[in-house]
Amino acid sequence: YPSSATTSIERVVSSALVKYDRIIFNTVLPSTNPCSPGGDTWLMELDALTGKRTSDSVFDLSNDGTFSALIGGLPASGVKSTVGIAKTPIWLEDSGTPGTAFKIMSGTGGGVQSIKNKSPYTTTPKVRRVYWMQIQ
Q1: To 10 degrees, the CA torsion angle through 71, 17, 122, 100?
Q2: Ordered per-residue pLDDT tens for the chain, 136 residues
Q3: Whole-model pTM?
Q4: Do the Cβ atoms of 45 and 69 come closer than 8 Å?
Q5: Cα separation, 79 vs 60, whole angstroms
Q6: How far apart are CA 119 and CA 113, in angstroms?
Q7: Residue 84 in contact with residue 107, Cβ under 8 Å?
Q8: CB neighbours of residue 3 within 10 Å
């Protein structure tokens, strides 16, 4: 445990999402004041096989349609939530713009945040129905 009441420890408190070759999860930094609710969430996206940052930028932080978010010359691996503490996001493919997806998060601040994300698909994936039938 921290030695000071003003120290906040980052933790993962919700399920991770595995999509393609990536692992997507949220970290939570609770408020440093134990009498104050709330805190911050960071949406993280890493290479699922290595646990390292992805080799290319996957976030469109400037919302200009390009995935060029670099921090110190390296691709950004996390984005701070604007909606307070958030749970695992949902991933939605953009069928109108192949190669683009969105992560949607709702948070304790009452809002919804949408983050444009690079999808590994450069063409729209084919959707097909798969079902089973019980034979008697």
Answers
A1: -60
A2: 444 555 668 899 889 999 888 999 999 998 888 787 788 999 999 999 999 998 888 888 887 877 876 777 888 889 999 999 998 899 988 777 777 889 999 998 889 999 888 887 665 556 566 777 777 7
A3: 0.77
A4: no
A5: 10
A6: 18
A7: yes
A8: 5
Question: Would you say 43 and 79 are in contact if contact means Cβ atoms under 8 Å apart?
Answer: yes
Report residue 37 as tokens: 């609710």
Task: Locate 62 and state its tokens.
Answer: 């400037």
Q: What share of the chain is helix, strand, coil (3-state, %, to 5)?
A: 0, 40, 60
Could you give the CA distance from residue 98 to residue 95 in angstroms, rounded to a whole number? 6
pLDDT at 7: 62
Nearest to 60 by CA among 72, 49, 68, 52: 68
CA distance 65 to 117: 9
Q: 46 has which bridge partners?
A: 23, 53
